[in-house]
Design goal:
Nucleotidyltransferase, domain 5; 2 domains; alpha/beta; 5-stranded mixed beta sheet; binds adenosine-5'-triphosphate; single chain; 12 strands; binds magnesium ion
């Protein structure tokens, strides 16, 4: 299991986001902005990495690290920043953001520009798996990030990314499979997917075509690496049966994250300058 402080931090952040609240702070704040395919997240921590506040917004303005709707992206980031500033009673001035491994310098610049258009100065651009590893307090092993658009694997050694790979299979594909199998619209299938009460009925539909595929990719990517533990993060890993499929296919020790949606956003804020 993850260590207690990691779990506590993630659960605290989830509660602060859910209740739109902020914790007392001494004014020294670190900000992280995660421009994901399914969600944009902005997280604020103090200098000791204790969560202070955060906000997430469902969005389709970025696809796997590439900004596809610049104007809307800038509007969303600006709006999220304003909401957090109102909560905190203070201006946010600088931030860290993150990129999936392997995206071009040009696309990285666009990501930073989106964040800077809100008035935040970007001081750090970190690799998403490094951010996830920071939040999980791990320096060695593998992280699989199952997001909206892609499944990405990174192997870390001494806190540095040794190997990364990704494939365009994520939560969006699960929703498409469910929509097709159940004759639902995409939006209705997305709702069904999020309902824990329906997991027993719907997981068998996505397991063979999506989850086992993700697990096989992970197993094959890891053949050259001597890795025992795989940490699993990202919203699409939220199913309770998800780690079991990965365990069976890869034969590795699978460590699911508490609050899988928030691991990378929290890690980005932790990597920011105070
Ligand atoms: N409780 C849940 N059960 C199943 N799927 C979920 C749940 N919560 C979120 N998801 C799915 O997780 C995905 C979003 O995860 P996440 O926020 O980690 O992705 P992202 O960072 O926006 O995307 P990417 O990392 O691919 O750019 C969506 O496909 C969403 O439907
Ligand atoms: Mg992501």
């Amino acid at each position: 299991m993850a260590d207690v402080s990691v779990e506590t931090r993630l659960r605290t952040l989830e509660q602060l986001i859910r209740d739109a609240e902020c914790r007392e702070h001494d004014g020294v704040l670190k900000v992280g902005v995660d421009l994901g395919t399914a969600n944009i997240a902005m997280v604020v921590v103090d200098r000791h990495n204790a969560p202070i506040t955060g906000i997430t917004y469902p969005s389709s303005v970025v696809k796997d690290g590439i900004v596809v709707d610049y104007l809307s992206a800038t509007r969303v980031v600006k709006h999220l920043k304003q909401q957090l500033e109102a909560r905190l009673g203070q201006a946010l001035t600088h931030a860290a953001t993150a990129i999936p491994p392997g995206i071009s310098e040009g696309n990285t610049k666009v990501i930073a520009n989106v964040v800077e258009s809100s008035g935040l100065l970007v001081t750090h651009v970190v690799d998403e798996p490094v951010a996830a590893a920071t939040a999980l307090n791990m320096r060695n092993g593998a992280v699989v990030d199952v997001g909206g658009g892609t499944t990405g694997l990174s192997v870390l050694r001494n806190g540095k990314v040794l190997f990364s790979a990704d494939e365009p299979t994520g939560g969006t594909h699960m929703t498409l499979v469910l929509a097709g199998a159940l004759g639902l619209t995409y939006a209705d299938a997305e709702q069904v997917k999020h309902d824990p009460a329906q997991e027993a009925d719907i997981f068998p539909l996505v397991r063979p075509v999506v989850v086992e595929k993700m697990a096989c990719l992970t197993r094959d990517w890891l053949t050259a690496y001597n890795v025992r533990n795989i940490h699993v993060v990202g919203g699409a890993s939220s199913f309770s049966e998800f780690p079991g499929v990965f365990r069976k296919v890869t034969g590795k020790n699978i460590i699911p994250a508490v609050e899988p949606l928030l691991v990378t956003p929290l890690g980005i804020a932790m990597q920011a300058a105070p």
